[in-house]
Design brief:
Elements: E1 6-8, E2 17-22, E3 25-34, H1 41-58, E4 62-72, H2 79-95, E5 99-107, E6 112-121, E7 136-140, H3 146-154, H4 160-171, H5 175-181, E8 187-192, H6 197-206, E9 212-215, H7 226-231, H8 237-246, E10 250-252, H9 258-265, E11 273-278, H10 279-291, E12 298-304, E13 311-313
Parallel strand pairs: 4-5, 9-13, 10-13
Antiparallel strand pairs: 1-2, 2-3, 3-6, 4-6, 7-11, 7-12, 8-11, 9-12
Helix pairs in contact: 1-2, 3-4, 6-8
This protein binds cobalt (II) ion (2 copies).
Length: about 325
């Protein structure tokens, strides 16, 4: 079934659904919730909300309202934990200018939290996760490696300082990056980097197209501390799945170290925005991002015509 007002639906795994209401207004809808990935309930609430709002920012939209989704083991867990989660979440929503309208909770063996988010966008300005063009540069706005750090944390091997850095990154809204992006006129694809890892989300940008990607492994923003964990084999299960799913599209050049290849498949929580834009706009966007405190934003690759449907990591 097709609807003439449907702009983005379930077909292409876009970050959110988009439905046109009028010539200059479309609705963006998305839902995301998960089990705690950090110990501190307040921080978990913040990360869960930053993650849920991110899909609206990735479409180029503005999140307006949200509903809480809560699963909680009320008989075995202290209610104050839930209160802290919700407080962290609410503060992030305020920071994003998003109004909480309500929500729903169910009893469950394991806590889960997240949001259903509604946003708006000009239908002519919707950014999809595909459509990268030859000559574009690829920009990434947050460092990668949070999945590996979370795995090291569970193994009690991650130093506090590193965990703190990763948490700060995950709790950071992609709002500022999206605001700055909106002044560019030639963004041809955008997505946020989450569970499929950088290579998985990059692959979506060129899949079934006539272009390919060259990734610059030496320019990648990443938590360099993860090298040690990768070399010890402390890797999340999702990393192996991501690799298995996408490695047929990927060529590693000898200039890219093995540990960085692992990082490229690392599933991220609340990762940065990955965007493909005309090269004339990339340098000034990066400068503006650095000036606004998005210090890790970097040009990490380019879109080429020579190797269609493939990602060369050099
Ligand atoms: Co997404
Ligand atoms: Co253009």
């Amino acid at each position: 079934m097709t609807d003439p007002n449907l702009i983005a639906g379930i077909e292409h795994c876009d970050d959110a659904g988009v439905y046109k209401l009028s010539d200059d207004l479309a609705l963006i809808q998305t839902v995301d919730f998960f089990t705690p990935i950090v110990d501190d309930p307040y921080t978990f609430g913040q990360v869960a909300v930053a993650n849920a709002l991110s899909d609206v920012y990735a479409m180029g939209g503005k999140p307006l309202t949200a509903l809480n989704i809560i699963c909680f083991p009320i008989n075995t867990m202290d209610i104050s934990i839930l209160q802290d989660v919700l407080r962290g979440g609410l503060e992030k929503m305020r920071e994003g200018g998003v109004l909480l309208l309500g929500g729903h909770s169910v009893e469950d063996d394991e806590m889960k939290y997240g949001l259903s988010v509604t946003g708006i966008i000009d239908p002519k300005k919707v950014l999809l996760n595909r459509g990268a063009r030859a000559g574009d540069l690829l920009v990434l706005t947050k460092p990668i490696g949070t999945g590996i750090i979370n795995t090291a944390l569970k193994a009690k091997m991650a130093p506090d300082e590193l965990v703190e850095k990763a948490i700060q990154s995950m709790a950071e809204l992609n709002k500022k990056a999206a605001d700055l992006m909106s002044s560019c006129v030639h963004i041809h694809a955008c997505t946020d980097v989450t569970g499929f890892g950088l290579l998985g989300h990059a692959a979506e940008m060129i899949e079934e197209s006539d272009v390919g990607i060259v990734l610059f492994s030496n320019r990648l923003p990443l938590f360099t501390e993860i090298k040690e964990f990768v070399e010890m084999g402390i890797l999340p299960a999702g990393l192996y799945r991501n690799r298995k799913y996408r490695e047929h599209m990927v060529d590693q050049r000898s200039t890219c170290p093995d540990w960085i290849m692992d990082a490229l498949y690392d599933p991220q929580t609340s990762g940065g925005l990955l965007l493909s834009l005309h090269r004339s706009e990339a340098e000034s966007l990066i400068k503006a991002m650095h000036a606004e405190g998005i210090k890790d934003a970097a040009i990490i690759g380019e879109i080429v015509r020579e190797t269609s449907n493939r990602i060369i990591v050099e």
